Amino acid sequence: MPKASATSSYPRICVRFIAGVYHWLPVQPIETAPEHPPAPGKILQFLDPAPGEGPGWPPERCEALIARAELLCRQQGKSVCVVFGPRDAVYLEPDGRRKQSDEPPWGGVGLTGGVNLDLDPTGEGVREPPPTSKEQLEAMLDRHFPDRHELPDDDEVDEDEVDELQPDEGFVVVCSGDLGGDVWFDEDFAAVEEVRHLLCCLEPEHEARFDWEVHLEGLPMFDRLPQLEWPPLGDHRQLEEIGPFWAEIGEPICDFPGRTFHQLLVEVREEHREHVQEQFGELARRLRPIVEEIWE
Asked: What is the pTM of this model?
């Protein structure tokens, strides 16, 4: 059974339209069906089978989300992925196939408008929406890439032309993915991901609420954190500026529209792993109540 991440960006739904073209949806468990379902393509609500369990993602809630995603998959006739965390996903196919994986979708074009999805949380009495036509997809892609070329078929893409970035000898991967896109953190560095997530929840006006001298006392790794552009660590490459990290940028794996993200790999020497975990773990513990208070 999947285990949803504690961060607010998970779980989420990925609907695959064609190769390299996706639509991402946040999810929301609800106790009763709303009088007016959400606008098409905005959020996937589903009836919560365990409302008394409180926040979080117990097995019953995870399975209910998967079941709702399966219905969406069949209605749309498109592949759907339920992403519970950076290394935890369930792929669904319209023919009923289900596969758990530690490799969620990444890269590609994220569609932001004009997506025809009917998201009634009950799944009952939902009209069968007309499939998104090739012309609609072309129009959406044109909005993102006015000067684009035609997307090649999967079998025309040579993904071996550019090698994937690999950690250097004696280093371990902190996070990797697309520069400016999806970046996945290794589970050993979950505290680094949490600190970055907490800081990225903040707006510039919140900086005045921070007494860095107090919050960072005894954490020498973060001496330069207050000098970073707000919000600190919004750019993964900023990790280089505060600790023993090394950020490497590589050429895109493919060179056609929708998958032109440069590769990103952030690594750290093996001997620094424990120190990084301790420092970021303690900072996360200090930041949690501050961020929660700001957003109450």
From this structure: 0.48
